[in-house]
Amino acid sequence: MLVAILFFCGTLGVGAQTENKKKDSAYFNIFGLPNPCVYLPAPPDTASVLFVDDFQQFLWGKSVRNTPRGQQASWESLYGADRMATVYSEAMGVTISKEETPAIYRFIKRVGETSNQATSMAKRRYMRVRPFARLNEHVSSQFDDERDLRRNGSYPSGHTAFGWGSALAMVEVAPELQDTILRRGFEYGQSRIIVGAHWQSDVDAGRLAASAAIARMHTSPEYQEDLEEARAEYRRIKGIKSKKIDVGYPKGEKVLDAPVDTASYRYYGDVSYYWQAKQERGTSRGKQALTDAACEVKDFLDCYTTCVGLTLNEKETPAIAALVKRTFDELCNTATQLKSAGFRTRPFARLGESSAMPELNERYSTSSSYPSAHSILGWGIALALVEVMPSSQNALLARGYEYGRSRTILGFHFASDVQAGRLAAAYTLARLHNEADFQKLMEKAKKEYDAMKDKAVAPAMNVSPASSEGFVNLTDAVPDAILEIRYFGTYKCSH
Question: Which pTM value belongs to this model?
Answer without folding.
Answer: 0.89
